[in-house]
Design goal:
single chain, mainly beta, 14 strands, 6% helix, 64% strand, globular
Length: 279
Amino acid sequence: MNLMKVAFLVLAAHASFVMAQQATPIPDSVSPSGAGGTARTGAPTPPPDMSDRRTMVGVAGSYENLSGTQPSWRDYSFRLNKNFGGRRIFDGALTRSSRFDLDDNQISGMYSAPITSRLSGSVQGSYSPTHRVLAKYSLGGAFQYEFARGWLGHGGIKTTEFNDVRVNQGLLMLEHYFSNFSWAVALRPSRAFGSGANSTELRGGYYYGDKNSVSISLSGGREASNVGTGVVLADVRTIAIFGRHWLNDSWSANYAIGHTRQGDFYNRNGITVGLDYAF
């Protein structure tokens, strides 16, 4: 398991939380945080050395068109990803968001580190000083365990505080890597307004070249969503295609397209593009 695969696994697990609770229909793993690395055999990680230490900086922008008379959404972000070696990874972002003609700023971060040779843990959080549409803050933690060659289990919890409700969410995910492919299935139970809700995701990935990847994600269920007038529990269905392609050893491009049906409120069609520099 090389550096790029380790980074991809850690950030894919992180993205499983970020995708929920109205972040964007496009998984966060396609943003500059995602290493988009090669996942081939699922072999245990070798002892770290100096060569696995790398820093990545990048910018990304997204545009989402909403059906009806709803105004379009726009997000712009700057992201820093630092690999300290030995599977210790920090990922942080500054985001400017415009939704329902309301602007928000947000800072977010994640840190992951190994606990044993097969078990790793991560903590993540976000804070918005404006929180007109985005959450005031979120805090979460997750574990990833490689229980067999190419097989990983994920579990975690997260709490998100909006202006009018707190959403508590769990994560259970099974992931398998084989040859140049991967698949994952995830369940996210959540609770808001005194009621329980569940959503599920199916994800498949293909890895080509040394570090390139393209994936498709299908998700659906009942989720806490901000529909402009506040947060509600709505039936949400999303399909997204996303990936990363390295232009050379230092520069890579990430991309995504997605469609979300937000209950009976509106549909969203979106695109994300980003450019990253690694050194």
